[in-house]
Amino acid sequence: MNIIAAILVFGLIIFIHELGHFYFAKKAGVTIHEFAIGMGPAIFKKEKNGTLYSIRLFPVGGFVAMEGEDEESNDPNSFGKKTIKERFLSIFAGPMANIILCIVLLIPFFFFRGTPTTTFDTVIKNSPAYNVGFKKGDRIISIDNRKINNFEELGTIIGNSNGNEMKIKYERNGKIENKSISAEKQSGKYVIGIKPTSEKNPLKAIKQAFVSTYVISKTMLVFLWQLITGQLSGKVMDTVSGPVGVVNMVSNAATTGILNLVFMTALISLNIGIMNLLPIPALDGWRILMLMIEKIRKGKKIPAKIEGYINGIGLIALLSFMVFITYADIMKLIFKK
Hints:
Elements: H1 2-27, E1 32-48, E2 51-66, H2 84-113, E3 115-123, H3 128-131, E4 139-143, E5 146-147, H4 151-159, E6 165-172, E7 175-182, E8 184-186, E9 189-191, E10 194-199, H5 202-228, H6 243-255, H7 258-276, H8 284-296, H9 304-336
Helix pairs in contact: 1-2, 1-6, 1-7, 2-5, 2-7, 2-8, 5-7, 6-7
Keywords: Hydrolase, Membrane, Metal-binding, Metalloprotease, Protease, Transmembrane, Transmembrane helix, Zinc
Subcellular location: Membrane
GO molecular function, one term: metallopeptidase activity
């Protein structure tokens, strides 16, 4: 049953991504030969208005086959004959659809789970917050004279404190009080040992969905930058997962309830959206970069054949990396057991 949940999650995310490409390409009048969900041999296909719609055996990708996307074409409705704006929207819409899906999924998640507030629900025993005298019901007002508006700001300031002393202004039973506290490092991040209360409010759930999408996106980009620049220490592969690892995480989320599955789906969708915007050959970000270069060169395109070769090399590199990550995922599962 969990495997079915994982397949449905990947199918939804891929469908939304490719639908973004498909909608704007179709709107621009591009000839589309096939709209496919999955890779490998087709297990279902149907042709309508000149476009083949198919579901393929392996739910690990998908594509929208457009005329003239990777080759020269004289068809006036080919992808290459469209304006830079039309091509940009057709490419950008895929990753953007994944980011929007993340926000849409997080709204009901935060509505039913509740949005975290700056009021303490639990103060963990023997934690920094417990040791300085914080209690359940205390509400944070400011840290080092910086007003705290939401739980994300609270977590960010504490996380960036590096264990230095912080002056906290808080409210207890209607009275304003002050305390000094130093966060401690646990599992690689600084914490003070509190759990917030949650509030169920539809407007706050919408706001929280946008805020969380921004915060998580920023965290992903910082991680990628640290990975590229070699700033990460220790076993980097322990923090990276491929298809097998992600399926395992989705399966685990499915066993713990629908809300956790919705949250995991949102995270994966956002991850795919962000990753596809990176300027790496074979990804949407690379095609966007080529369009930017074309714009700078005043409409002079990179030859489609050369761009196709570059994308082909990039695809081989990405597939090789995926095989390596998959092997690492399998090894982690084996030794974990």
